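Cross-posted from the bioinformatics board.
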Amino acid sequence: DAGVIQSPRHEVTEMGQEVTLRCKPISGHDYLFWYRQTMMRGLELLIYFNNNVPIDDSGMPEDRFSAKMPNASFSTLKIQPSEPRDSAVYFCANGGGGRSFFGQGTRLTVV
Amino acid sequence: GIQVEQSPPDLILQEGANSTLRCNFSDSVNNLQWFHQNPWGQLINLFYIPSGTKQNGRLSATTVATERYSLLYISSSQTTDSGVYFCVLETSGSRLTFGEGTQLTVNP
């Protein structure tokens, strides 16, 4: 198993543009999480899914953020329109049943 | 929500030294994990340890759930051990709560 795969690894975009982050989770884990990491706030949970269903999106900062999990093999986190304060590393993680596994993260820079 | 406190916040070691990182938490949890975030940002699961003691090479971890703490031991530290060590608690619904981390620097 290749682990949790995120793409792209790095994204630089201009303010106002739409950004889509992608995650391919590990099969066999029921939970999928999106986190954001910044120097100021550390790791923050944005949203998580259980069996592809969004359970808690209270961590999503604004309506500009949305996430989908159309099937067990794929999830996206979209920011539209993006702003400089969205610059961070975004992690996708799998969990459920004990251990959690993180992707390598997408480093987003909004200029 | 549950509170997680890690100590020390920063630690500087000389290569070869041993260290103990501590995680205190305020409530019972479903499980506890230790993660290492390397200087490149990658988060790596070190231990899944809701209770008891586990060892993996130079690393070992002990969780005393009844007293709400966990310890991560690093022996014979190496420069590649540098990074941030997170204590991560799983509460209801498999939600993960992260401590603020211990920033470890191992100097050659």
